[in-house]
């Protein structure tokens, strides 16, 4: 016979409340209970009753099974697996104590699991760093997600096709706001402080999509499209990664978010219409921004995805960096050699456009292996509008193979064979150009010569290999 145990859902309720963007007081009002009672439940000092389960399900339109599912067995299984690590070999850990911890203290269990995951990941990264130099972070979730997107050349046929069909439905309804209204969802634009500093929040209880009113029109449209992607295309997004096995849950989370953004772009810029406009306008990004009501960065993203069989366009590599040189996004729609590690070369104009904000810089590039590319770079600004509101300035760049540059308005009158090129490297660790004066570290496999009798112009001189 099943054992009747009190149901403690503190961490799960707290996670749900935060996902809904609610304070404890707001949730208490929705459930018609006191804020202190919500706090007690979240701290696992009160069990969740059957009546409370029904209120949660009815108020936020959730499945009771999703709310009340017992995490205890899953936590116990994962904890037992972690505790078999040899680092714990000399500690007596009775199974009953582990089960009690998993059942009674799920928050502590989750904290221990995260700590062990972080420990394992860092230990593995350190080992790989010592064994393989620059590939130390290969199993880091962001890198793993990037590899997945690159393996698909940043094109997902089923998702793109369904988004195009959905875009046609939205156009027929008179726009995204009208389409959502038909589904019973009202779109409202409110100050960020009302949204608890969010840019977008869906109020399930009142069926309202709340958008920060400080966003520009392109960002508003994209946030609405992202909500539509998360709801109407949820099955297609999950199907895109269902067959994959990742080393971390974080990787899957990052990919779900990335594919929702992909789908949102496909809704705002449907494949067929966008691909035709791209050719007609010579890949003029500013013109495409005006045609589709999208931002420079959104259009640049979309250009990396034009790989539909029979309707392919120029393949692009996309990168986004900040003023410190940190790469925050890397998308590969062309299989370029710097997709995995590239972007850190200071000779690439993507690092120089901060000096002339908003202006497009073009550049012909040549990698150490002789591959030649054409690059377009420009700064973009993110964040909400308003005096004193935090704004983030980044640089984005697109690069395509040199032989395709003539199809772009930016290089239409330039001979790619005679165009002056800038020699760049994938990254200093992998670039063997000994004469480079911008080098920050020696390349792998080269011995550095002493400067006893001679100091060269470049930072390092190397022994002949």
Automatic annotation (TrEMBL):
Family: Belongs to the short-chain fatty acyl-CoA assimilation regulator (ScfR) family.
Domain HTH cro/C1-type residues, every copy: 13-67
Keyword Repeat: no
Gene3D superfamilies found in the cross-reference section: lambda repressor-like DNA-binding domains (1.10.260.40)
Organism from which the protein derives: Novosphingobium barchaimii LL02
GO molecular-function term, one example from the UniProt record: DNA binding
Superkingdom of origin organism: Bacteria
Keywords, comma-separated and alphabetical: DNA-binding, Transcription, Transcription regulation
Listed SMART domains: HTH_XRE
Protein name in UniProt: XRE family transcriptional regulator
Record keyword Transcription regulation present: yes
Signal peptide residue numbers: none
PANTHER family: HTH-TYPE TRANSCRIPTIONAL REGULATOR, HTH-TYPE TRANSCRIPTIONAL REGULATOR SUTR
GO cellular component: cytosol
């Amino acid at each position: 016979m099943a054992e009747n145990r009190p149901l403690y859902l503190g961490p799960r309720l707290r996670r749900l409340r935060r996902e809904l963007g609610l304070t404890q007081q707001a949730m208490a009002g929705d459930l018609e209970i006191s804020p202190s009672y919500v706090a007690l439940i979240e701290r696992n000092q009160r069990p969740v009753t059957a009546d409370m389960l029904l209120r949660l399900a009815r108020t936020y339109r959730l499945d009771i099974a999703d709310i009340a599912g017992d995490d205890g067995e899953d936590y116990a299984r994962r904890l037992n697996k972690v505790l078999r690590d040899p680092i714990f070999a000399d500690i007596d850990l009775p199974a009953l104590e582990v089960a009690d911890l998993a059942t009674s203290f799920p928050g502590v269990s989750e904290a221990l699991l995260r700590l062990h995951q972080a420990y394992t990941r860092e230990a593995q990264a350190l080992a790989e760093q010592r064994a393989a130099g620059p590939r130390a972070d290969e199993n880091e979730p962001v890198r793993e997600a990037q590899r997945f997107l690159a393996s698909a050349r940043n094109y997902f046929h089923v998702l793109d096709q369904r988004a195009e069909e959905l875009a046609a439905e939205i156009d027929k309804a008179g726009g995204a706001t009208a389409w959502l209204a038909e589904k019973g969802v009202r779109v409202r634009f409110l100050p960020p402080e009302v949204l608890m500093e969010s840019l977008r929040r869906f109020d399930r209880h009142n069926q309202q999509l709340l958008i920060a009113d400080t966003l520009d029109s392109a960002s508003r449209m994209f946030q609405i499209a992202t909500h539509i992607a998360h709801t109407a295309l949820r099955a297609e997004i999950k199907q895109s990664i269902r067959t994959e096995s990742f080393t971390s849950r974080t990787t899957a989370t990052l990919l779900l978010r990335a594919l929702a953004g992909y789908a949102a772009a496909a809704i705002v810029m449907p494949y067929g219409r966008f691909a035709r406009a791209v050719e007609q306008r010579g890949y003029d990004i500013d013109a495409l921004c005006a045609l589709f009501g999208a931002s420079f960065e959104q259009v640049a993203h979309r250009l990396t995805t034009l790989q539909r069989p029979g309707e392919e366009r120029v393949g692009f590599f996309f990168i986004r960096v900040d003023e410190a040189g940190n790469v925050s996004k890397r998308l590969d729609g062309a299989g370029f050699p710097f997709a995995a590690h590239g972007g850190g070369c200071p000779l690439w104009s993507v690092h120089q456009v901060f000096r002339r904000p908003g202006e497009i810089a073009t550049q012909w590039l040549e990698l150490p292996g002789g591959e030649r590319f054409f690059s377009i770079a420009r700064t973009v600004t993110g964040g909400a509008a308003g005096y004193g509101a935090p704004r983030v300035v980044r640089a984005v760049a697109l690069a395509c193979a040199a032989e395709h540059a003539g199809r772009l308005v930016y290089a239409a009158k330039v001979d790619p064979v005679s165009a002056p090129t800038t020699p760049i490297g994938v990254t200093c660790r992998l670039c063997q150009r000994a004469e480079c004066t911008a080098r920050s570290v020696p390349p792998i496999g080269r011995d550095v010569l002493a400067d006893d009798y001679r100091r060269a112009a470049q930072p390092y001189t190397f022994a002949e290999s």
